[in-house]
Amino acid sequence: MEIRKGISSLAIYISACLCALWSFSMRAQTLSYSHAKDLPCAITPSDQQSIQSYSFTVFENALSKSGIDLRLADKATPSGSQIHFNVIRNEDNENYYYWITPLFAFKCGGDVRCTPNAGSQEITIAVSYIALAKAKSNAETAERLSELVSQYKHSKTFTLHAKSMLSELKLSFPATVLAFGTLSLVGELHTNTDNLWVIADVVPLFSEVGERGRIEGIAADLVSDILDEMALDQTILSAPWARIAKEAMTKSNVLVFSVIRTDERENVFHWVTPVSRNLHGLYGIDKPYFPFFEDVPKTYRVGTLLEDYRYQIAIEHGFKVKAYDSWQALADALINNEIDTIFGSQGAIDLGCNPKQFKCETITLSSKYDISTAYLALSKKDTCVLALEKLKLAAAGVKMSDKFNEQLSSWSDMVSEEYGIAHHTKNGVVHLWKPN
Fold first, then answer.
1. Which end of the chain is more exposed for a tag (fewer CB within 10 A), N or C?
2. Which Gene3D superfamilies match (predicted)?
3. Looking at the whole model, is its pTM more than 0.90?
4. Residue 312 carries which DSSP code?
5. Are β-strands 182-184 and 97-107 bridged in parallel, bridged antiparallel, or unpaired?
6. Tens of pLDDT along 386-401?
7. How many CB atoms lie within 10 A of CB 355?
8. How far is residue 206's CA from residue 220's CA, in Å, rounded to a whole number?
């Protein structure tokens, strides 16, 4: 159940940072917030105050069932750990923030910077967001916050609140409308999603070519449901990863899955929604568990796939490394004592080991390396940020739907019964390891 990880095979998340991210989201109970000073001067102080109050309430309501509280930031609160309301997205700060969700759209010019790729309407606009400083320590938090707000924007509570704010703003800005979960003070917002090019990387059980040439699997089901939600009839294509990467780096509106999120890809992709998570590490038979990857004896003979990113990582850590052409070959090598551990994931072990020939449950995790997340992603190059928002809202709606959750449950049962692959699901995402 391996999903390709690199445009460059050497790009990785550092395991210590990932572990910190993973634990941070579990223990975080309070977020500090502040209001950016980006609102246009043309908006009266009274309307600005209403906008600030609305922004806070939207976010507070979205977090109401998450166990996370909000408190106003003070002078001692580092800016990098704060949630910022109504930051206008522009070409200078594009890579400085995680853009949680858009709130308002204004006419830009003068004191207001324009937001690049913000729709096909005649008027150039500035879009304000809830934003969080981009840092590895904030990555998982930003992902979860974005999903919570997208889910909330599907609720009746949000619609009523937004319509009330819309009525108030219409007194000063008669053209105000609600579009893509965003209050636009300049009228209708337009973005073209009819020309999306949808491409899947072939991954067993997630997105594979069926008998009739149709892409099948749980990731394909998710994407098909999202396209249906948006009333789009695009065909899902498949291509080798090298071709997918090239197209995503050179063309707009390329929707691809499943793509592992890495540092080097931040400038290539918008991240729509997570599809799966995979725990990577060393797996052996009757080997002790090492809490830290660095503590594993360098005398271990480590097996990896040929041309796999983990081959280089194992070399850099000083292990004796042997490469094989399949997970089956790796499992056989481990069983035959040609290697001491396999550098892979639980899903890979389940794929490679034949339970009719060996007690596969005796192959256990010896040391965790990292956790990777595979996404439905949208190419960044010249792609409208409002198209991203349409996709994120559609994805949140699908993941909350009875239809997709029934598909996910049926798929999960099949994977357990027919393949014996350890996994669990959470918030519509497949986690490829046993639940704790």
1. C
2. Periplasmic binding protein-like II (3.40.190.10)
3. no
4. H
5. parallel
6. 999 999 999 999 999 9
7. 11
8. 7
